[in-house]
Structure formats: C-alpha cells, structure tokens
Specification:
about 90 residues; rod-shaped; 4 helices
Length: about 90
C-alpha cells in the first residue's frame, strides 16, 4: 500500500470520526431533534456511549494525521542526503 493511499484513508477516517463525534455530542444535548432526524436510531443513551467511545479512535487518527507527514518528510530528507555524494576536501601542500 502506498503512503498516499494510507494518508488518504487516515484523512477520510478522521473526517468520519469527527463528524460522528459532533453528531453524537449534538445527540446528547439536543436528543429530541437527533432522534427525529435519525428516525429513532440515535437515542440519547446511545449517543452518550458512542461519544465516550469515539474519543480514543479520534485521538489516534488525529495523532497519525499530524505525525505521519512529519515522519515521511524526515525519511525523504534522509534518503536525499544519503544520495548526495559527500564532498572531499583536498588539501594542497606547497
């Protein structure tokens, strides 16, 4: 799997987790509206449980979303520096 595909999957999963986090939070505070909008599927107790359980996956995805580009940049930079031949200094003795 390429890094671009991996980053894209992380981005979309993070977006879905954040949207669910917001919807479940709204389902806790405005449960009547959310219950009507979801045809009774997302009740207040279910919203509360989902909201509690979404903290860890959201945090993990956010950490991956932030750290992965930094790691990839460092790996690319080390590869570029490894490819560049080192310059030798030649001293001329008179």
């Amino acid at each position: 799997m390429s890094w671009h595909l991996f980053k894209r999957i992380i981005r979309w999963a993070l977006l879905a987790a954040i949207l669910l986090y917001v919807i479940t939070g709204y389902g806790i505070t405005e449960f009547r509206t959310v219950e009507r909008a979801t045809f009774g599927l997302l009740t207040k107790p279910l919203s509360f449980k989902m909201h509690d359980y979404l903290v860890y996956p959201t945090a993990a995805l956010l950490l991956l979303h932030v750290v992965l580009p930094i790691v990839l940049r460092l790996v690319r930079r080390s590869r570029v520096h490894a490819m560049v031949p080192k310059r030798r200094v030649i001293k001329l003795v008179k």
